[in-house]
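INTERNAL AUDIT FORM
Audit reference: QA-55
Scope: verify that the stored structure record matches its stored sequence.
Auditor: D.O.
Record contents follow.
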Amino acid sequence: MKNAPDLSAQIAKSIRDAIVSGDLPVDERLPSEAELSEQFNVSRSTVREALKRLAAQSLIRTQRGATGGAFVNRLTFEDAYGQQITTSALLLSMNTVDFDTACEARFALERACAPLSAARRSADHLATMRAEITRQAQPGLSDESFCASDVAFHRALVDGAGNPVLSYQLAGAVEAIEPLMNMITFTARSRTHIVGLHTAIADALEAQNASDVDALLADLATYTAQLGRSVADAKKTSS
């Protein structure tokens, strides 16, 4: 006999599958805990745990009162963004992905956004990138703050493509892989060089020059890969 956690996971999956298939449409009220308990032949506490799992994934919301209950939520890309980042970070940390592989993946994905961002970037995206460049050039900026600014810069570039599916898919590349790469290279990188590349990328985006954006991202990829190798070589020498 399966234990309660296994049963609650099965019930959550069954309801999630019904939501994905459209059998339970957005804003549809789920059966009550008592009805679900009878339907799945489990205790109400097991049903409650299954509903908690679904709520944690933003698939359902609960409302109190006479007309309350659990309802199918309209999941947005923004709601799922954090889950994508967390999953990517866990995969990287648990599967010991090497630096070159992470670098290759990140920039290949980001360069896919270059032509779209050049065509669609808004004044707000450009303003965000310019503000982050100014921040990165501050002499007293901590490594942690520089990393956060670096992520914000590249997220604006990706979001400039105006495609929420791409932004969601690249969440892991920008906000999971990039911080990991920064942690490895921060002792060797030249902030001045990075700020120069960022400025050139923003200029190319403003001019809607997709080929220049792509070439500059390729330059940044090459520079980042070189940093990773130099750090690795220095560690070997010192050991």
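Auditor finding: record pair retrieved intact. The chain has a mean pLDDT of 89.
Action required: none
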